[in-house]
Amino acid sequence: MEESWLTSRRAQVREALGGLPAEQRRVLELAYFDGMTQSEIAAALGIPLGTVKSRTLAGMRAMRGAIARNEA
Amino acid sequence: MDHEAIRQAIAAYALDAIDGEERTRVEAELLEHLPGCADCATMMREFRELAGDLAVAAPPRPVPADVERRVVRSIGGEPAARPAARRGGALRVGAIAAALALGVSVAGNAILAIRAGDAGRRADALARAFSLAGDPESRAVALRGREGAMVLAFRPGGRAVLLGDRIPDPPPGRVLELWLLRDGRPVAVQVFRPDRGLVLVEVRADPEGYEAVAVTVERRMVPAPTGDPVYAGTLRA
Fold this sequence. Notes:
The complex is a heterodimer. Chain A is an all-alpha fold. Helix content of chain A is about 80%, strand content about 0%.
């Protein structure tokens, strides 16, 4: 039962992540899965630090909304 | 920081993606802001849960060789060399920030995250600090210094606690002395020393009615400061 919850949760989170605009998904993946700081992400992608910050917030908000809708 | 910048900082903090040099400042801002803002406290809780959810979605990949050592060191309280300590340090302070935002219910987890195997007295003091921060009438003020920040959490007319993490020891033979200031005059409160970087002091005074709070380095408890503050914050009415 625990395994099926985990499987279903993983599917939900991957769906929410996959549903993000590519530029938001990229900053979240680099931060979380690659352990990069926001300055490192800005340098790697060649975009301003402020853009990394705003995309991170937008991505987190969108994911939170998608998962909440899925749970409702 | 305006509110949108605070929200951006919460998102970055939940992902542990804040740069080392900026982290101290951001932590001080969050510790000051979150206890008094229910919306941002909720956002911190939800984003940290979301960061936890991301772990289950992580693609399979090899674990770097030093991850286990870093995690063990971070919960054991032994300082690891930067930049390897980045995630460990953030986990410890992240636990404080989250606990301040959430109140007493997560204090137990925060204690475990901050330092395993510590005495009950420390746990009690930390729990009181978090219950204070979860109290809508309580206030939290950041004391900023060149080497990190501390937070004074208090309930006017009630208890007060001074909290800090990764605070350097004063030089050998010296102590840190806490002051409250009114009309520009410092009133000596008490002396203390960090314990392996952690400051958890039950303050023996009510900060209500004072204008500022400061910490100096002294040889012993003295009635008037002998040097400039190494940490200071403003107590606004």
